[in-house]
């Protein structure tokens, strides 16, 4: 029997859910109790197919900041997606993995000067701005850039709001276009972002209408306004499929009304969580517990400490307003539930994942599954107290591997990867896959499988 290695792609003969895959992994563990992700790359592919089916006019540019996992970037590049990058590091990573400069929008309205120079050096021409100072800075550094004016939106119904930091109002947007004309800068379109986790399709509809007005004004000034970027905010958790379909229908209708397909307008978006949220399931282990008696009710209650926390994979609790839901993987009594709090492993009292939740009694060594953990988790995780956060193990059925394996082959690189900026959660993969490389061979789980390990 062989254990699979972390940061591996496991190709299985049969189809497995993340929970089934995690359970098989756990069954093989002895002393290894580090947290890990089961990453369903086929789920990412299915999201892409759904996107281009429901919004065929809108080309997705994956928001790298949401999850900078190398294998996700490789797969989406292979599928033809573009990329929304917010820094030199993200541009470099995407281009090192084979994406060309014309598939990147530098969608950060506040850019460091040296990063603008880097974008110019590597040929990334399209970038956003939302104020005169940024416009003048780009003029000085990169006068041939193709600029996209970001306008403000009503993101009051979003989980994470951006309009208090980014975006020009309608009057300011017109003045910025006047200034751009005066200094001979090239404006090619308008962008907006309705907020991460947007909860209403109306925000997209209103923003599209406003974008049309600004682009009309730009066209009157003589600009060739041919790019509309409708940003991100699209839902990606399991169970949000109908809501995404609703947003797609509303966006399509608004585009048809304000941007009819004349062959000239290019429309893009910046989905992040949409692609990766449901693809990542996190497995954590109970490393300690405290049993207490509630002073008011006299009932037992428990504190559980697990091996990942808010400084690691659960930073989404602090930064993304996410409320993760635990699914216990235990063979004990699941009917009787107790008031419980769940804590991370660090020495900080802030490291609390759930303050009060009703779950069955757990023991040290039991495992907890956390679904929908792909968005804004490992991309912002750190090893505070020297404690590791979850590392990914990728799994997919062989029929899917056969259709996408070219995405994970080694590629010629014009720009050498700077290892100092490559995150620990990201892994590169070798270009050789052999069907006889079995990740495990328990009697009840014989797999025709392959493992692709990091170079």
TrEMBL record:
<comment type="pathway">
    <text>Amine and polyamine biosynthesis; putrescine biosynthesis via L-ornithine pathway; putrescine from L-ornithine: step 1/1.</text>
</comment>
<feature type="active site" description="Proton donor">
    <location>
        <position position="347"/>
    </location>
</feature>
<protein>
    <recommendedName>
        <fullName>ornithine decarboxylase</fullName>
        <ecNumber>4.1.1.17</ecNumber>
    </recommendedName>
</protein>
<dbReference type="GO" id="GO:0005737">
    <property type="term" value="C:cytoplasm"/>
</dbReference>
<dbReference type="InterPro" id="IPR029066">
    <property type="entry name" value="PLP-binding_barrel"/>
</dbReference>
<comment type="function">
    <text>Catalyzes the first and rate-limiting step of polyamine biosynthesis that converts ornithine into putrescine, which is the precursor for the polyamines, spermidine and spermine. Polyamines are essential for cell proliferation and are implicated in cellular processes, ranging from DNA replication to apoptosis.</text>
</comment>
<feature type="domain" description="Orn/DAP/Arg decarboxylase 2 N-terminal">
    <location>
        <begin position="42"/>
        <end position="277"/>
    </location>
</feature>
<feature type="modified residue" description="N6-(pyridoxal phosphate)lysine">
    <location>
        <position position="65"/>
    </location>
</feature>
<comment type="similarity">
    <text>Belongs to the Orn/Lys/Arg decarboxylase class-II family.</text>
</comment>
<keyword id="KW-0456">Lyase</keyword>
<comment type="subunit">
    <text>Homodimer. Only the dimer is catalytically active, as the active sites are constructed of residues from both monomers.</text>
</comment>
<dbReference type="InterPro" id="IPR009006">
    <property type="entry name" value="Ala_racemase/Decarboxylase_C"/>
</dbReference>
<dbReference type="InterPro" id="IPR002433">
    <property type="entry name" value="Orn_de-COase"/>
</dbReference>
<dbReference type="Pfam" id="PF02784">
    <property type="entry name" value="Orn_Arg_deC_N"/>
</dbReference>
<dbReference type="InterPro" id="IPR022653">
    <property type="entry name" value="De-COase2_pyr-phos_BS"/>
</dbReference>
<dbReference type="GO" id="GO:0033387">
    <property type="term" value="P:putrescine biosynthetic process from arginine, via ornithine"/>
</dbReference>
<keyword id="KW-0620">Polyamine biosynthesis</keyword>
<keyword id="KW-0663">Pyridoxal phosphate</keyword>
<dbReference type="GO" id="GO:0004586">
    <property type="term" value="F:ornithine decarboxylase activity"/>
</dbReference>
<dbReference type="InterPro" id="IPR022644">
    <property type="entry name" value="De-COase2_N"/>
</dbReference>
<dbReference type="InterPro" id="IPR000183">
    <property type="entry name" value="Orn/DAP/Arg_de-COase"/>
</dbReference>
């Amino acid at each position: 029997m062989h254990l699979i290695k972390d940061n591996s792609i496991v190709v299985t003969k049969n189809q497995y859910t993340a929970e089934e895959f995690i359970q098989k992994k756990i069954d093989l563990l002895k002393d290894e109790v580090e947290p890990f992700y089961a990453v369903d790359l086929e789920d990412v592919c299915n999201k892409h197919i759904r996107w281009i089916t429901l919004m065929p006019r809108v080309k997705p540019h994956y928001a790298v900041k949401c999850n900078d996992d190398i294998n996700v970037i490789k797969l989406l590049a292979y599928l033809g997606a573009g990329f929304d990058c917010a820094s030199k590091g993200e541009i470099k990573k995407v281009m090192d993995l084979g994406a060309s400069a014309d598939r990147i929008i530098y969608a950060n309205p506040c850019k460091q000067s040296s990063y603008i120079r880097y974008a110019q050096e590597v040929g990334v021409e399209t970038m956003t701005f939302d104020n005169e100072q940024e416009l003048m800075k780009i003029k000085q550094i990169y006068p041939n850039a193709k600029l996209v004016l970001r306008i403000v939106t009503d993101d009051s119904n979003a989980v994470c709001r951006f309009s208090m930091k980014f975006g020009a109002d309608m009057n300011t947007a017109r003045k910025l276009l006047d200034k751009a004309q005066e200094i001979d800068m090239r404006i090619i379109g308008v962008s907006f972002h309705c907020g991460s986790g947007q909860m209403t399709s109306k925000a997209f509809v209103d923003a599209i209408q406003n974008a049309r007005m600004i682009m009309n004004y730009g066209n009157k000034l003589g600009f060739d306004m041919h790019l509309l970027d409708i940003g991100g905010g699209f839902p990606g958790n399991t169970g949000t499929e109908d809501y995404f379909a609703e947003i797609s229908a509303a966006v399509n209708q608004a585009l048809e009304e304000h941007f009819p397909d004349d062959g000239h307008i290019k429309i893009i978006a910046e989905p992040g969580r949409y692609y990766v949220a449901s693809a990542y399931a996190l497995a954590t282990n109970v490393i300690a517990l405290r049993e207490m008696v509630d002073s008011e009710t006299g009932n037992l209650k428990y504190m559980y400490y697990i091996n990942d926390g808010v400084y690691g994979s659960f930073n989404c609790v602090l930064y993304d307003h996410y409320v993760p839901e635990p699914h216990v993987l235990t063979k004990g009594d699941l009917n009787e539930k107790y008031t419980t709090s769940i804590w991370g492993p660090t020495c900080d009292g802030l490291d609390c994942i759930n303050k009060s939740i009703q779950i069955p009694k757990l023991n040290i060594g039991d495992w907890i599954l956390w679904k929908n953990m792909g968005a804004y988790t490992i991309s912002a995780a750190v090893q505070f107290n020297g404690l590791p956060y979850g590392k990914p193990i990728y799994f997919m059925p062989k029929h899917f591997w056969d259709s996408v394996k070219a995405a994970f082959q080694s590629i010629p690189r014009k720009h050498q990867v700077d290892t100092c900026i490559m995150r620990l959660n990201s892994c590169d993969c070798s270009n050789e896959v052999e069907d006889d490389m079995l990740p495990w061979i328990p009697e009840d789980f014989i797999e025709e499988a392959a493992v692709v390990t990091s170079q």
